[in-house]
Amino acid sequence: MAFNHLPAGAHDALTPLSVTPVTHSVPMANDQLPPEAGVHPVPRTVLDRLTAGADRAARITHTEHLPPRPGRHAPWPEQIRPEVVEAVRAAGIERPWAHQALTAGHALRGESVVVATGTASGKSLAYLAPVLSALLDGSEAPNGRGATALYLAPTKALAADQRRAVRSLAEPLGKGIRPAVYDGDTPVEEREWVRQYANYALTNPDMLHRSILPAHPKWSSFLRALRYVVIDECHTYRGVFGSHVAQVLRRLRRVCARYGSDPVFLLASATASDPATAATRLTGVPVVEITEDASPRGELVFALWEPPLTELHGERGAPVRRTATAESADLLTDLVVQGVRTVAFVRSRRGAELIALIAQERLAAVDRSLPGRVAAYRGGYLPEERRAIEHALHSGELLGLSATTALELGVDVAGLDAVLLTGYPGTRASLWQQAGRAGRTGRGALAILVARDDPLDTYLVHHPEALFRQPVESTVLDPDNPYVLAPHLCAAAAELPLTEADLSLFGPAAPGVLTQLEGRKLLRRRGAAWHWTRRERAADLTDIRGGGGRPVQVVEEGTGRLLGTVDAAASHASVHEGAVHLHQGRTYLVRRLDLDDSVALVEQADPPYSTTARDTTSISILETAAEIPWGEARLCFGSVEVTNQVVSFLRRRLITGEILGESKLDLPPRTLRTRAVWWTVTEDQLDEARIDPEALGGALHAAEHASIGMLPLFATCDRWDIGGVSVPLHPDTLLPTVFVYDGHPGGAGFAERAFHTAARWLTATREAIAACECDTGCPSCVQSPKCGNGNDPLDKRAAIRLLARLLRDAPAPQEETRPGPAGD
Questions:
Q1: Helix 758-771 × helix 693-710 angle, to 10°
Q2: Which residues does the UniProt record annotate as the domain Helicase ATP-binding (predicted)?
Q3: Is the pLDDT of residue 440 over 70?
Q4: Considering just the CA atoms, what is the radius of gyration of the chain in Å?
Q5: pLDDT for 598-617, tens place per residue?
Q6: Cα angle vertex 470, ends 751, 756, to 5°?
Q7: 455 and 781 in contact (C-beta within 8 Å)?
């Protein structure tokens, strides 16, 4: 029997929804309604109010105080035009911080540079100063078009926010600066103006991939004059998405070379480990890094918060903690009542909707005007909905916002006093990015990480040194992934015929992949070049977000109104027939999922339950790229094929989490070829660990769950990016085996990272299980919210003994080796 753990796809459907009513620690009286604008609460005072009472105070496991830091100035480089310096002064900035001046200096010398400093450290100005200077120089050119610049953001919201900032800064500079957003929301009639007249185009990698590069002749004058390419929030380009963006940028460089330009790349990142290496891998050009943050910082009080155990019991009778969703909804309610401007970051779309809905209901009991000052913000909203929420946030009309990471990335939400993180966001880089949304004008700020009931969150709130004493992670991406590379070679050939000289630009795997594309008759060689052979657009071969197909449209059955979209990979688990779907605080039931037309038909309803998908998974080994002996055990890395099928769903009562029933589903299986790390143990090792055959399945299954939960501490992944299977006797290894695999075709680099750090990763896994206060296993250690087998069997104590025996013969972390060429 195989025990499986589903990767990306079930994210929205599996968010815990049980909500236990609590008594608010902050009295809800009219005399505590929001204070007048300009009054900013002190973070320690706010936290004291939140933790009034022994019950609330006991939920704080650690409080970290980051003291204020003074700033350090430097002069602008002489090449920055005086008009730009004056415009910056007019905006209230007399002198730049040292890292801003240093970044601008590299840019002006034609050196690609990444500035990786803290949130609100002024990274935008660091690249805008040289960009605006270049655009002004170009506006005086005889041909009138002059220099151009391209700005890439991972989200539409960030690009729109940057346009506002550029227009404000460039207003004194006159008509020499012409910024314009070019994204999926840009009307058709405006797109021609952007191509012909804008000299600072703000877009996203998706539009560059699908619209700009395929139509490069229409952009010829813009590309010919392209001086700078700004890549904002570049730390988000990781995994499969980052690998796709890396190849899109190589295509951009190739097309630019065709028009005679060689743009300089200016990258901005949250604090990251070795940002120059990651930026070089992303762009394919050498990049200089600026990492010393010279900006001032206000006081930050950062609290780790663990929800209490409830009297409820979950699967297999395990104790259940109050959900992070319910806890964050209470905290957001209390903060809004105090007049503390707050954003609650949530990992799932459903969670964002639910927190806003609960907070609105509870605020209505205090003052009828308060519910309208709280909203949800997530991907999948229609453009007009997003713009309205962003405007309300900027204007101060909203006091509280429950948001997914769609709002994390650089959107200027100045004026916030507090941030709630509903669960660890997956990486330390994202943690600091989200926490930095508050206090952006130099005031003090409060950040609270509310732990979910899972192994990693539980480990972190009891091991604060893992958050506050460790550097942020390295960004993991793999542009040589053949599943990523192949469609981009086709797209490149459709843009301009491919030649032998082009292949080095796309990496060492390009010649082999090119041969495969010839064999599949997607490319054809004519003379010295390869050409795209099909009538359809080559750019449509892939979704660079790694969604795995056309998004599923969520449509209201009675009216035909489009509510939003769901990624294709998530559709089987989140909008299957009978699923509960939340949108803008309203609840819908899915009546039918049409996979052929990529449409889910829903109707508004008010069911007293949530839904959770169940699945089955099998795995086979295709190739072992690397293998390391751990005594008699073996640690391996290579290629695998995973077959997954969503087979049923559970209905859980909203308040208690009680399982009301299970319904079967008839959905087709999905096959995934990807990369995995796996380890085997021998019968002798099992005997030494005192694990008999009856306990073996539960020990392997528990170790698998916990190791998946802990991997995001060592790789820049989310637990929903990875999956796992544990088998007491696997047909390919003929031994008890645990697999952890990337949930994306061809792999995303996460399993490879797990292979490199296996000793530290599995040691932390064993420690997390052993430290949990439960007796037989619970969601805080070995149970998984997305287990396809109903978390059965699980044996916590046997898993601890198994991992201890496995690790006894593991090499020291510094002795771990990287796989050879076959694994790279």
A1: 110
A2: 104-290
A3: no
A4: 26
A5: 999 999 998 989 898 888 88
A6: 25
A7: yes
